[in-house]
Amino acid sequence: MSALDPFYAMLRGEGDPFRNHPENLRELQLAAMKERFAERREQIKLLRRRADDVGIEDVNRHADMVPLLFAHQIYKSYPEQFIDNGRWKHLSVWLQTLSSKRVGDVEVNGVNNVDAWMDRLREAGHHVFSSSGTSGKCSFVSQTRADLDNVTESCVKLGVYGNALIQRDFGKRPVFLMMPPGGAHRHIEPVLNAAKRLGAESTLMFDDPVLASATISMGRMRRAMADGSAKPSEVAAFQEQAVARQRHTGAMIDRFLDKLTARREVPVLVQGNWSLHWTLVERARQRGIADGICHPDTVITAGGGLKGTAAPADYREQVIRFYGIRPENVQNSYGMTEMIGTGPWSDVAQGYAICPWIVPFVLDKSGEHLLNPSDGQGVVEGRFAFFDLLAEGYWGGFITGDKVTVDFSPTGNTDGLHGPLVRQVGRYADLEEGEDKLSCAGTMESYVRGMINV
Length: 454
Fold this sequence. Notes:
Blueprint: H1 5-12, H2 25-40, H3 45-54, H4 62-65, E1 70-71, H5 81-84, H6 88-96, H7 114-123, E2 129-130, E3 140-141, H8 145-162, H9 164-168, E4 174-177, H10 188-198, E5 201-204, H11 212-227, H12 232-261, E6 269-271, H13 274-286, E7 299-302, H14 315-323, E8 330-334, E9 343-346, E10 351-353, E11 358-363, E12 379-388, E13 397-407, E14 421-427, H15 441-452
Parallel strand pairs: 1-13, 4-5, 4-6, 6-7, 7-8
Antiparallel strand pairs: 2-3, 8-9, 9-10, 10-14, 11-12, 12-13, 13-14
Protein name: Acyl-protein synthetase LuxE domain-containing protein
Organism: Paraburkholderia atlantica
């Protein structure tokens, strides 16, 4: 029997994974981390190099895992010229240093852009996903088919056990998805698949796939405009494309809004993030559409912050009025792209639950020292890191850019949730204290450069 079996059972079983934790969860998590490390150090070059350098041969306590957690920047540590010059074999070799399965052997002849490279890897069973890449450089993470299926299952679990109304109407209500039909982002396919189980029918906001190449190009152009290196002709072309893109996006939003208002007589599920919900509010007001556009039992999913969108301080309250729903009909959750499963917000417990297969770590700002209480009791503040026990295609240990407050005390008598809970979340980059580069990031990137001989 594998130490991971209880966690797969929590994900794939019939019960509520947020409220049915076993009493010895911390011990089960430690045993599963120990097993994962023993397996992955033989498969992932970067992990093996790191473990050898810090002298860790086994994981026997949570503190042993801290120097083995990867800084989130490591998944964009490839040289940009690999993409600029079409060195797809080199990009695959880079990805191999971070992957548990063989990636570098995939044939890349005929690949002409980064999306074609990702497609070629997917055809070989490596379901690579990319980050948004707003800075002009995407993160790339290799996942397996099992990873994708597990994300789908986690989305269903969040929908069913994160909101009583969705559980009541499971499989019956129309679903409106503020997302495209496909693309490079990890959650697109799993969310589309989960929607087929959660609702009776689905409507998409966008009709174009999200391409990594387009995102990279846009991010680099913004960077060039900011530092003054962009040519006037390039700026003019970029602005012209932006106007056309904005016009097309507006038409897609209008179509989505029309279909949503046409279903105001029945409860629906609207899945999106706060930024897109606010965009929909602004579009409706431009068209003179009054608040209260949905049935009062409508549920919306939200999260992710505003992602740079300008909005008033009370935008959440305005979004709720716009839909005509109660505050408890908002299904907030906390998680990130690299994580299988996000935890729902509980108004009763006043915190975000954490999936039992996600082992939370609170570190100091530098990412070097563990702040978790040794006895599993108490509240701590610091940098959020985690180990995802279910990650298959990649190492599940991540250090994030989030500053959090985590309550590790048992909370079984508040909404039935068992600790720990994430009480508060912020981004270091958005806070007055700012973000410093993680102390381990430079070391890990030097490992990667050495491994790919660049």
